[in-house]
Structure formats: C-alpha cells, structure tokens
Write a structure and sequence with these properties.
The chain is of the alpha/beta class and 466 residues long. The protein is 35% helix and 23% strand. The relative contact order is 0.09.
Length: 466
C-alpha cells in the first residue's frame, strides 16, 4: 500500500477554475463547497439532479445534470470521484486537453497549504469527533474551515471554508487520505482492523497510523482507553485523553443520561472544564473529550468551546432521532463494525427505555466475512435483535458469505432467545410494526439502506394506533 504524497498538488493560493465530476455525491459536494467558498470558480456535473446539486447552485456553482464533454468548459483542472469511470466524456475531454484529473487525495494537500489540517482519524467516531471539533473551535472564536463526512446540524452543512487558522478534517484511513498535510494537529480515536484489502494487512495499517502521527507538525493526541491507540501514542510520545488514570486529559465524574452526558475534563493537575452535552453514550463522551483535548492542545479557548458544545445538535445518522409514535422512540445509527454496534446499544441501554429493540444490516461481503464471528457479543444490550441480509455496497458476492453468518455468531454467543431473522427490509418492517410496544427504543443500525426502516415503522405504528 503506497503512503507517499499525491503526485498532483494544485496551487489554490489564487482563484482557479475547477470542474467537479459527480458533484452530487457526498464527498465531491463537500469539496465543491469548500472550493467555491474559498473563492474559486467552480462548475459541477452529475448523472442526476439532487438536493446536493441544488445546494451547490445556491452557493454559486454552475451545475449540469448529465455528463458531456462541453461541461469541462475553461476549467484549469478537473476533480472526479473514484467512482467516475475512465470513459466518462468529461474525463476523456480533460485528458485529451492535457488537464489534470484529480481525486480527493490529490486535492486535500492543496487545501492544507492555505490552512493546515487538524485531522481526526480512527476506526470509529471520527465523523462525530470532527463535527464536535469544528463546532468547538467555532465556539472558541477560531472560525475553522471543515470537511466532515456527514452534515453537522449545528453548522448547517458538512463542509465550509472559513477565515481561521485551521482546517478541521475528518481524516479517512480507508485510502490513506488521512496522510494529507501539512497537519497542525492529529487525533486518533481508536484503531481496529478495517480496510485491510487496501493496506495489505494489520501491520501495514498500524504503520500508516504511525506515519499519520509522526508526520504531524503539532500536537498529537490518542485515546488512552483504546489499547491500540494507546500503544501507538506511547511509541510516538503523543498526549492522550479518556477515563484512564494516566490520561493527559482525564474524563472524571462521568454521568450518562438518555439524551445528555456530563463530565469534567481534567488536564494536568488543575486545568478543568465542565462538560454538559446533549449526546448519549460513553463513546460520545469520549468523542467530546477528544475534541476538547485538541482545542486545549492548540491553545484555543476551551471554556468557550465546551459552552458551544452544550447545544451540539448532532450529526446525521449518528444516534440520530428519527421520531416517535405509539410510545416508541426510533433512533438511526451508521454503526457497522462490532465495537460501534456495542457502543450504540450501550447508549440505548443507558436511556431507561423498557426494551432496546435493534435492527442490524451487515455491510459489505468483505466486512461480514472478516468480522462475523465478532458480532455475537456486540448485541448484548439488545432485548430483541432483528437481523437481515447484508448490504453489498457494490461489492461482488463471495461464496458462503451472507447475513446468516452474523446470525450464527449471535446464536453462538447464547442470544438465540432474542434474535429473529427477517431477510428483507419489508420483512423487518412488518415484524417490527407488530412487535414494538409503548416504552420501546428501536435502533436501526448499519451503513446501508436500513436507514429507511425507521420512517416506515413509524408510519406503521401510527396506522396501528389509529
């Protein structure tokens, strides 16, 4: 797995003309947003119209529905999603004209030349933590730019260019783009085996994270409560945060509620900030602690930052309230790895509902094959567990790999008394509409289209009640 810097790093210090292909996608839309707000002239195209394209148009991006060579216009370079094929007419046109066709990995270092990254990485929690950090630094008066993997309700967008000293980046290890820099600070929430097809193995992934920290020109912070992140931090001399007694920034007097968490973050012997945030779960308390640890390490106003987080409005698909009906509360979460699932259900268990009813949709053949055996214990806080067929996310099928592997893991963990198998989402909705009762919490979990289950169940519950 190559970890070298990208070959093409455009100069963005002066206004440029940029064309973005697949601009309606989450990642490309975010990049286009940052570019146009930074003063560049941006055009964008996608195969179909979408709300994301319309938002870009409102920002001043010239958008096109459909792909045509003419859309490249007078662009100086083109940015394309990795999903865009080489025979896309706009890609072909750009290459015939000798223009660079850049990927996200190529563009990130150019953004960091203007404002160095404050990069948040880790297997779990990086979206929420980078969102928290963006809101915290904004509250501290630092006006950071930001690029987060999901919309941040408190900021009204997933990406934005601002006038401050830093650029908060959700730094993704899946394709080594977390190595983009320069980096003014770096945070690692945790490290578990994931994306090993890209890296080539566990040792290579760990080496990538080590490079991420060692090549950061500023404070590095890791979670002291995660064994792998802690070990890496000790190797490179990073500071730490967490409930561990020896953490540089210690979480003390943690109180978890159904929709809020409070704690004191103690840095050293005397520097303490009280934290009260509208987020449930120990994992989210740690995410908040990580974000505020970075604020303190950068020398920003941590008290103002903590005050700003008191009204944090959450991140899309991260323990997100979908609604309620017939006395049932519905939450949706993007969790798709065993530790993430366990953390989400623990947060649900802390809320005082009569029952925690979980729906889990495994994600990708590769992940299901690698992690199926680990999933069984992760559902310990579910009173009822509904499993369905996996969401392939574009992967080709693998012999012997399907959602039933997770069912076997749950049964082997002794939870066969609470688990039911409903292969399709239609089956899931029908079962839940009959099963749920007042006082229940329903949590839909997974990175695929299981997110559609909650709204459909709410409709069914309302119809049942009437």
């Amino acid at each position: 797995m190559p970890v070298d810097a990208p070959r093409h790093v455009p100069d963005l210090s002066t206004p440029r003309r940029v064309h973005v292909i697949a601009a309606g996608g989450t990642g490309m839309s975010a990049l286009a947003t940052v570019l146009v707000e930074a003063g560049h002239r941006v055009t964008g195209s996608d195969a179909v119209d979408s709300a994301a394209l319309r938002r870009l148009a409102d920002l001043g991006v010239t958008v096109f529905v459909g792909h045509d060579a003419a859309h490249v216009g007078d662009a100086e370079f083109v940015v394309a999603s990795t999903a865009v094929p080489a025979d896309n007419p706009e890609v072909v046109e750009a290459r015939e004209r000798g223009l660079d066709v850049l990927r996200r990995l190529d563009l990130l270092p150019a953004l960091a030349q203007r404002q160095p990254f404050v990069s948040v990485s880790g297997t779990h929690g990086k979206t929420t933590t980078s969102a928290l950090l963006s809101v915290a630094l904004t509250g501290a008066g630092e006006a950071p730019s930001f690029l987060v993997g999901a919309p941040v309700a408190s900021l009204g967008t997933a990406a934005g260019f601002r006038s401050g000293r830093w650029f908060v980046l959700e730094a993704d290890e899946s394709d080594a783009s977390f190595l983009a820099g320069p980096r003014a600070a770096a945070l690692v929430t945790n490290i578990e085996p994931d994306h090993l097809e890209f890296w080539g193995g566990w040792d290579e992934l760990l080496a990538g994270f080590r490079t991420f920290l060692e090549q950061t020109d500023g404070p590095c912070i890791v979670c002291a409560d995660d064994p792998e992140a802690r070990a890496l931090g000790e190797l490179v001399g990073a500071a730490s945060y967490g409930e561990a007694d020896d953490a540089t920034h210690r979480v003390e007097r943690l109180v978890l509620g159904p929709d809020r968490s409070t704690f004191d973050l103690v840095s050293g012997d005397s520097a303490t900030v009280h934290v009260d945030v509208p987020l449930a779960g120990r994992h989210n308390a740690l995410n908040v602690a990580g974000a505020l640890s970075v604020v303190r390490a950068l020398g920003a106003d941590v008290d103002a930052a903590a005050a700003a987080l008191a009204d944090f409005a959450g991140v899309s698909r991260r323990f997100e309230l979908v609604g309620s009906a017939a006395g049932v509360t519905v939450i949706d979460d993007y969790a798709h790895l065993p530790a993430e699932v366990a953390a989400v259900l623990a947060a649900g268990r802390s809320g005082g509902w009569d029952r925690v009813v979980a729906v889990f949709q495994p994600h990708r053949y590769s992940r299901t094959e690698r992690h199926a055996a680990e999933f069984g214990p992760s559902f310990g806080d579910a009173d009822v567990l509904v499993l369905c067929e996996l969401y392939p996310a574009g992967e080709a099928p693998r012999p012997g790999v399907d959602g039933s592997l997770v069912l076997e893991s749950v049964t082997a963990a002794g939870r066969n008394d609470v688990v039911v198998w409903r292969p399709t989402l239609d089956d899931v909705v029908a079962f839940l509409t009959d099963e749920l009762r007042s006082g229940d919490l329903l949590v839909t979990i997974g990175a695929g289209d299981v997110t559609t289950v909650g709204p459909r169940v709410l409709v069914g519950l309302r119809e049942r009640s009437s």
